[in-house]
Amino acid sequence: MTLKEHKKHSVLTKPALGHFARNEWAFVGTPCGEIKTLADQVIAALSSSYKCSYVDASHAHADAAATLPGRLAKGAVAEYTDQITYHQVDFTQPMNAFRFRQLFSEMDLVLVNGNHQQAQAQVVVIDERKRASLQKRVAQLTNVQLILLAEGTEQVFDFVQEAIPGWQALPIYKLSDTAKIVSFFQEQMQRAQPVLNGLVLAGGQSLRMGRDKGAIDWHGKAQRYFMADLLKGFCNEVYISCRAEQQVEVNNGYKTLSDTFIGLGPYGAILSAFREQPDAAWLVVACDLPLLDEQTLEQLTSQRDSAATATTFVSPHDGFPEPLITIWEPKSYPLLLSFLAQGYTCPRKVLINSETNLINPQHPDALLNVNTPQELEKVKRLLVK
Q1: What's the pTM value of the predicted model, to 2 decimals?
Q2: From 9, 61, 71, 340, which residue has the greatest number of CB atoms within 10 Å?
Q3: How far is CA 213 from CA 141, 155, 247, in A?
């Protein structure tokens, strides 16, 4: 092997994250007060549908900013305060993009004061009061998606035109046109909804059943294929999740996704799917649900909430979330990994302790799973009725 052939790190598909999150915009080119007002308007309009957040810097006097609050002044590196209506964490460690992404991993939309922080996309305000400041930050205009004209401004600055190829094709609104600005962000967020893939869990060893549950013929074909075909009507791509040695047993007409998180059961299969496509949402179904039908999948997908960690049914059997017929959003990927780091491999535990969109099934029997020969015979009788 030559030095050029040597690869120090494994090649992984990285999520499409910015400095803070997947969808982030920095407002730049106008005073901080105007940016705060603009952020307030957008957040107020979108917060009922999306988890929104805002990033800024303190505008306190330098001497006041240098004084550490609370126990930090005594040497603590972090302090948590339950403020009753909100929660506050102060800490002294320096921040970088990796830590920001951890903090904002569940956010759908991050708005940034571009006078102090950068973001993956930008909204440029053409404002004479900040002409010189904007010119100093022209190198930050890497992905401008909207131009706003402040009161009394009619033309885009020459240096902005030079910095943004094709700037004429961008939407240009008045800074005072709140409705159009809000509409812009609503459209951007709708376009950003993650694509939905399907994953049929067929990699279990079926020890209680005594034979491969995915190969049982309930509806004229092996159950793993029946489930995959059922998901195709609701998903962009559908994969059958299996162990590596099982792939040769799967019909070539179906895509497979082998476990790369070994020995973790369904938890590992879900993580393996996100490792393959971290920006997709995954509709995960177990292969041992012989009564699952289109109506149940239609209810689940039509009531999907992409702002939640996941969308799932309330189990009619125990009242807990049903983890193996669930839409897992991309934001659940780092959450699943964090639970794994704490020693947990139960997807239901993640759902219980996260912001999960829970819905009541219109057809509870569709969630009945079959794990033993006795349960198999029971469901056979139901199917012939």
Answers
A1: 0.91
A2: 340
A3: 55, 67, 15
